[in-house]
Specification:
With 85 residues, the chain is of the alpha+beta class. The protein has one domain. It is built from three helices and four strands, in the order βββααβα. A two-stranded antiparallel sheet has the order 1-2. It has a two-stranded parallel ribbon with strand order 3-4. The chain is elongated and about 50 Å long.
Length: 85
Amino acid sequence: MRSNLTDNVLVIRRIHLRLILQAEDTHRAVAARVHAILADKCPVYRSLEPWITMTTELVFEWTQDAHSLDDALHDCYGGEWRART
């Protein structure tokens, strides 16, 4: 196993992002499509990816009390999110 120390400095070599979405089951397909394009649209991912191995995982937790998926994405991305039908 390769050490994460370079010149006695801890160096980040990989990041795993676990996204937990609480929503109704009817939004599962939309959430999967958004997750599939997340990396390409994320400035942090695009900036770090050439130097750090990055992976993502979508965990879907069903709930009847969740916001709508559109509300959740709007909260996350602000006014930039617009639902596409």
